[in-house]
Amino acid sequence: MSSADSEDSAATIAAERAAESLDAEVAAIVRAGEVLTSVGYPEHAPPPEDLRSLRPGNPTCHLDVPGVGVCVGTVAALEYPSGAVLAVARGGVAGLTTEEAALVRGMARVTELTMQMLRLLGDERAARETSEAHAAENARLLATQAALRRVATLVARAVPAEELFAAVTEEAGRILPADAATMMCYDRSARAATIVGSWGAGAEGLAGTRLPLEGRNAAVLVYECEAPIRVDDYADATGQGGEIARSIGYRSAVGAPIVVEGHLWGAIIAASTTAEPLGPDTEARLSDFTELVATAIANAESRAALTASRTRVIATADETRRRIERDLHDGIQQRLVSLSIDLRTFADELPGERTDLAGRVAQLRQTLSTVLDELQEIARGVHPAVLAKGGLHAAIGALARRAGLPVELNVRPSARLPESVEVAAYYIICEALTNAAKHAQASLIRIDVETRDGSLCVGVHDDGVGGADARRGSGILGLSDRVDALGGSLVVHSPPNGGTSVTALLPLSPGA
Questions:
Q1: Mean pLDDT of 240-269
Q2: Residue 237 in contact with residue 264, Cβ under 8 Å?
Q3: pTM tops 0.70, yes or no
Q4: For residues 411 and 396, is the Cβ–Cβ distance under 8 A?
Q5: DSSP 3-state helix, strand, coil percentages of the chain (rounded to 5)?
């Protein structure tokens, strides 16, 4: 069932495998009167009542199958979904043997664990989608943050005031967006304003212009109200500020005060030169920009909370993966191994003339061996035990041996690394190897892993056809949240006919 990508597909594959393995006419998974999936019944026909009535607690069933007749079978309860059962039935009155019934119960355990794992993965995907939706909702805030970072960088570099004011004005105009913007400093003693920055259509060269604060225009309104304002029609604006605005084509404007240490310092005014006024949220957005420090701090806290949320989701998912892997290894896998040994003992004790029964037992043992192989593959996919026991070096070696292609290893760190870093590196390498084996048509894969400057550098390179697009459903891209939660980076480079390189940088400690 390793090919299943949802609970429904896992249920269908389980029923198909059960029917095929046991040469049964029908197999189905039923929960509380609902047939989740079935094999052997006519398509598009309503499920019969005897099938829908199956419940946990009755280990056998008699099913009237159209075109076949009465089939006797075994019913195995599933812990997940709660109240569900796996039923497998064969034609005739004999039904399944004791060994086959035990195999059905083993298949039921594998099925429930697989469906539970897929539910977990679905929850993880949903959490990631929620995180992405949250990021989309804050896209405007993130755009403002980027502008604020650029301004803060100029402040930290202590650039000349005229360069800083020009940059602030341009950033404010671009993020709104507006057609033009000006930044001015108020002089209360003279009731005047000096334009210290200008940007956009017609506003070039206004820096240095001094305006008396008289008449009715955006500069005067901000000064008098000390709050965000809007002028919807500059045709009625008066005073020198209104005349200059009309001369350069202003049709409407929005202004917001700049308050420094509790005192009105100046204003930023954004303008539209078209009949379409600035958006209704322009005042709020412009006000946010003028509160540079407060906005930057609030946005940093938002990013930290988002990262912490991702980290909690990933940690919970990893712990659940480990628990499921332990359950698979210590529970059903051990029981299936024991069952295989019992079958071998049973075969050894058969009389020589019972070749028919010996052949059937051999077939059952082969089927059981296949189930064990699939179970081991599922366990490795849920959480690699070799990673927990032997560390990243051993786990990468195990991946290389199963890659199906020649793999050149250059893995330098042999000491144990932080668990979150090892797990992230393992899954990145695992996904890259899988993609190379399936799609790259490569003849050689090279894995480079080393620690450098407080980070683990992971690189997986193949000599295949290249042209991979990480945006089109790649599992590598799905690992970006895990890498982001560590404060790392993940890059896929895949030029056509140039092979594919997956490179990740994972900090070994927070803030590294």
A1: 86
A2: no
A3: no
A4: yes
A5: 50, 20, 30
